[in-house]
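Lay summary. Proteins are chains of building blocks that fold into shapes, and those shapes determine what they do. In this project we predict the shape from the chain. Here is one chain we studied, written as its sequence of building blocks.
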Amino acid sequence: MTGDRVRRAVLALAALGLVAGLSGLGAALLEGQSLLESPGARVGAFHHLNPLGGIVTTVLAALALVAGLTRSGMLALVSAAGFAAAAAVTVLGSALGASSLGGTAATVAVFLGLGGGLAACALTPERAARSDRS
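And here is the predicted shape, written in a compact code that computers can read:
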């Protein structure tokens, strides 16, 4: 992951993740939710997160931010895997009646979108440098 476009995409995805995580954490704390309450606090018409879900989302997004700043494809891939795992935990929790991250189907979509975008950026092959010779 060395191209400027890929780096900017990772930074944009990290920023979106930070907004989703911090807004979810803030909404859950303002509603006085417990750490594992399910469903989590509603964030506008967007998604639901409880405090644990907000913390997990914020940490994964911060990892993606570090990946973008350091141009580390491996860190972006680790963050992508974390978002995929968070989506799986949310789906499994919803099927069992209570999501440990307080998420709903909309939250799964957010996690998969962030994880898929980060994975695509991390797995984008490097382009060969252009030569100035004619």
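What the prediction tells us: The CA atoms of residues 53 and 101 lie 4 Å apart.
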